[in-house]
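Quick one before lunch.
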Amino acid sequence: MDLTLYILIGIFSVVAQAAPPPITMGFSQIGAESAWRVANTKSIKDAAKAEGVELIFADAQQSQVNQLKAIKTFILQKVDVIAFSPVVTTGWRKVLLEAKKSKIPVIVLDREIDKKDHDLISTFIGADFREEGRRAAHCLVDALKLKKENKAGAYRVIEIRGTEGSAPAIERSKGFREVADQSGVLKIVRSEGGDFKESLGKEVMEGILDGTPKASGGFDAVFAHNDNMALGAIAALKGRGFKPGKEVVVVSVDAIREAFEAMIAGELNCTVECSPLLGTQLMTAARDIQSGKTLEKRIITRAGVFPMSSAKDELPKRQY
Ligand code: GYE
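Model of the beta-D-fucofuranose complex:
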């Protein structure tokens, strides 16, 4: 045989051996409620392409019913692995049992499900939301001390919560309260739901402001469970003649680009990072399952905290 041909065949067989077998993944995404979610979807799609994973992507438009339907369809399609970001923590056991019966491994991404159902999943990849709540409270105390003269009694905080029953809303509330209670300087005086949406953050804040005349100086700070709701609240505050970032201290979670822009404008005091760039970790986990590795039950993603003073340096480095 011709030597070049011989070498070419050799190279081809090495490459063929190195390429992992194909994987089909069904992914049920929550929706597109925030900039975080949009960045998360992009990260998943990009990583699937880069890792040669065939992705069947389903957008549930915030509905658990749609997520359950999508997962059932993935089971019928006999995908190799199912992954999903659960909109709420409860109500998954039945469908997870169906996946188990069909021997399809399941990865939970971003939002956690009930601990009692963890026996039915391969792993949960996501952030420590309770810690994010704690960090937001610490950040708020620092910002209040910086912006407002120390007054007697506690600073009054308005909380704008994320989607009812979702892991980040439950845990961020808990973590924040833990630190607030210990600190003795933060007191939550109102708590309203904003479903992680900017439009609702604005609406909820306007409702509160309409019932709180400016002269009363009814509160000192806003803690929003994500940046988009904080941006909505900031717009509402400005619309009613308040100076967010100064008269009213505002902190939130996610660390999206727009949050850094708001910090540079002096209107947001701090954002706690929660990275949506989970695509590569997800695809790695799928490959590990395929090659028979046992995954850690919990893969925690790491993140930082960004006060207003860091915004100018950080903005150019942001990837979402
Ligand atoms: O903070 C919010 C999004 O589940 C961590 O969902 C995620 C949250 C994120 O809508 O912006």
